[in-house]
């Protein structure tokens, strides 16, 4: 029996479903913790008397922490295992959230938001790698894409929580908003108890019998020595990989592709999540904080609703046409907001909602591509590095949003967002690969002709496939 029958072609078991729920807890917390600041900043600004620069840093510093966390903890996860890191990062998230109750100065807010970002950055390579390495290939794309959907759910819950606190207790309740993440963190901790280590990671570390026992437990049958030997043959690397391998040749191109396209998705999205109520107020939607926050909830629902057809298309049409269409039509949706910034509220919400739907569909790829394009021994490091590349731009972009709104105006700020989205389309034309229906080992290998897999064939049909 081929090794693909053990994992890549295995049925979806109860354990797989439990693991999906457990791994989804991380992205949920990520979305919640990174988005709740968007509502809390209004009250924090009033209580702590933040200037424009400090306000920008407070909004962007979590992304800086995310950059550091993903860059540092991705390689550590590849070295010591996925399961060891699986709950440690949650403890840090919970502690930093609770500590927000005692914030008395702007620097304390910035410091704690940095720690939250650090833990979020650690979780990206941990949870996504573990889930990817257990999932059957026919469910892999939609399942990994689900993590992005759950991220959006966390963001939406954050705005509902923020709206509830603001409506009931006013803007002064911002400390409790930030601390509320600890409750969700404790729930996720419980979900993650009892998880197995990645069998692919165990194999490349020589822990063959442990991998065999775990796979047998998950599949509900005894895996034979022949089956596990076949898997070892395919999984075991020819030589020990080094982190520097990610910085040369095909791996470097893939890192840049994953990081830069993730950045092009993330900058407009994080701008909306972090400064959504402020942007909507500038555009004339919502006369008070609660009204603008309610408008933000509607936009977040757009991101979520767009994800569901994206999860279907990523398996039925493929990764490449989905990313191309999302960037192209997303740029076209932002363009009218830049051209007509003084438009009526219904016009603003219509095109913002349309952009949210389109961005939500393509955004499911940000976890899929880096997990599929790299081998087991480098997967978490690659996800961490791609995350870091994306967050350099996202942090700078998010920091500059309030500066741009004040200095350039709302219209030019929207045009910049449209330009960044179109840049993602151009990058994807040249570098987007097709990994649909490929087993995990094959997807990480170099195509025979040295070009991105299926790109030459896809270019010939690009016009027909762009229509999502």
TrEMBL record:
Protein name stated in the entry: MFS transporter
Coiled coil: none
Species lineage: Bacteria, Bacillati, Actinomycetota, Actinomycetes, Micrococcales
Transmembrane regions listed in the UniProt entry: 20-41, 53-74, 86-104, 110-132, 144-170, 176-195, 255-278, 290-310, 322-340, 346-369, 381-401, 413-432
Location relative to the cell: Cell membrane
Membrane topology: Multi-pass membrane protein
Annotated region (Disordered), positions in chain: 448-468
Domain Major facilitator superfamily (MFS) profile: 19-436
Protein source organism: Arthrobacter ramosus
């Amino acid at each position: 029996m081929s090794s693909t029958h053990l994992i890549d072609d295995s049925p979806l078991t109860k354990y797989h479903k439990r693991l999906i729920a457990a791994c989804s807890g991380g992205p949920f917390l990520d979305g919640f913790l990174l988005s709740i600041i968007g509502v809390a900043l209004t009250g924090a600004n009033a209580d702590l008397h933040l200037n424009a620069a400090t306000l920008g840093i407070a909004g962007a510093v979590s992304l800086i922490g995310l950059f550091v966390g993903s860059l540092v903890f991705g390689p550590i996860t590849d070295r010591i295992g996925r399961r060891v890191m699986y709950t440690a990062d949650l403890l840090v998230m919970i502690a930093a959230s609770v500590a927000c109750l005692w914030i008395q100065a702007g620097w304390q807010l910035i410091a704690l938001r940095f720690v939250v970002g650090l833990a979020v950055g650690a979780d990206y390579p941990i949870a996504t790698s573990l889930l990817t390495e257990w999932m059957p290939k026919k469910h892999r794309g939609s399942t990994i894409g689900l993590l992005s959907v759950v991220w959006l759910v966390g963001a939406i819950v954050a705005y509902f929580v923020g709206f509830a606190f603001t409506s009931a207790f006013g803007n002064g309740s911002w400390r409790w908003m930030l601390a509320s993440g600890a409750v969700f963190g404790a729930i996720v901790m419980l979900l993650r108890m009892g998880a197995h280590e990645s069998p692919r990671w165990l194999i490349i570390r020589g822990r063959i019998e442990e991998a065999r026992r775990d796979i047998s437990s998950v599949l509900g049958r005894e895996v034979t020595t022949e089956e596990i030997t076949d898997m070892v043959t395919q999984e075991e690397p020819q030589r020990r990989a080094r982190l520097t391998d990610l910085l040369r040749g095909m791996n470097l191109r893939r890192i840049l592709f994953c990081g830069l396209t993730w950045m092009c998705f993330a900058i407009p999205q994080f701008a909306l999540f972090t400064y959504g109520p402020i942007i909507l107020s500038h555009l004339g939607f919502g006369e008070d904080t609660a009204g603008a926050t309610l408008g933000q909830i509607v936009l977040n629902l757009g991101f979520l609703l767009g994800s569901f057809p994206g999860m279907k298309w990523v398996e039925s049409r493929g990764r490449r046409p989905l990313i191309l269409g999302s960037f192209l039509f997303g740029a076209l949706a932002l363009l009218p907001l830049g051209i007509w910034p003084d438009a009526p509220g219904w016009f603003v919400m219509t095109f913002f909602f349309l952009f949210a739907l389109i961005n939500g569909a393509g955004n499911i790829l940000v976890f899929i591509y880096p997990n599929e394009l790299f081998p087991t021994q480098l997967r978490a490091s690659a996800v961490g590095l791609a995350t870091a590349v994306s967050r350099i731009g996202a942090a700078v972009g998010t920091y500059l949003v309030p500066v741009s709104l004040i200095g350039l105006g709302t219209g030019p700020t929207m045009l910049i967002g449209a330009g960044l989205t179109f840049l993602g389309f151009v990058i994807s034309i040249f570098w987007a690969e097709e990994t649909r229906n490929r087993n995990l080992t094959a997807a990480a290998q170099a195509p025979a002709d040295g070009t991105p897999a299926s790109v030459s064939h896809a270019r010939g049909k690009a016009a027909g496939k762009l229509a999502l």
